[in-house]
Structures are given as C-alpha cells and as structure tokens.
Amino acid sequence: MPSTDKKLNESKEEVDGLIGAILNEIAAYLKDGYTLWDGKELLQLAAALNHAKSLALLDWENSLHQKDGSYYDYFEKKRQQYEVLERMLPYVSRITVQLEQGVRIGDFVLELSAHLRTVNQIQYFHESLQSIREYHKQLPMPENRNEFENRASLFAVANELEIFINLIK
To answer: What sequence ranges are listed for the domain Putative aromatic acid exporter C-terminal (predicted)?
Structure first.
C-alpha cells in the first residue's frame, strides 16, 4: 500500500519535527534561562503519535502480517522518547539560575536535536554526554543550596538524556 507508506513517512517527519522542536525549547531554556514556550508541541506530539501508531497497526494488519511491523516499532520508540521528554521537563523547569553546566547541556541538547535521525552517531552522543558528566564532576562543590538544587536538576536532565539517546537505536 504505497499511500499508507507515504502517510507513515509523513507521520515520521511530523513526529521527528515535533521532538526536535521540544528539544530546541529545552536547549534554549538551559542556555538562556528564559523562554516563552507554551508547550503545545507536547500535545501535538501525543496526538501525532497516537495517529501514527494506529496507522502503523492498520498497515501491518492490512499486509496480512507479512510486514515486520517496523513502522509500529519506530513509533513505539518515539512514544518512549516522548515519555522521557515529559519526565525531563519538570527538572528543566526547576532550574532557576543560569549555570555554565546548563549551557553545556543546552548545547548538547541542541546538537542532539539536529541529529535525531542519525543512528550512527549514538556512540558519539554517549561519549559527549559522558564527557560533560566528567567535566561536571571536576567542578567545585556548590556554594549554596540554590546552586546545589539547580545542579541536581541538571544531573537529572542528563540522566533522562542518556535514556533518550538509548531509544534512538
């Protein structure tokens, strides 16, 4: 069914675009400490994923189960990435001061957003995130409670990013 494949590929583009937009907003907040983002992309992503998964299931059923279900698997991975993004946002929103560590993670998120579909760069992203973590370990201890809480939120964001990267495969 070529028309179904076309619709599924369009859904892939839409979902990837929305995930990229969400990551760009997260990066902007981490780097600049301010954004007027209303979060509508999260709602759009949820709707797009539901539509795409039902379309993928229909495509698989119409092929009399002869296809491997790769579209469905793809959208299931994207659903899991969506859940990671949902978990990450409260940590991001708790960051109240501009920290150099936040800028580093923001740059990383921006780069990740630009290469969402590049499966062969997963190792690079793991190494880059590990390098950021190692750098953060070398920094002096926080000077006050506020800095401690902000760094803890950044640490949680880094943990969620690691899970997100593992889901790119």
So the answer is: 5-166
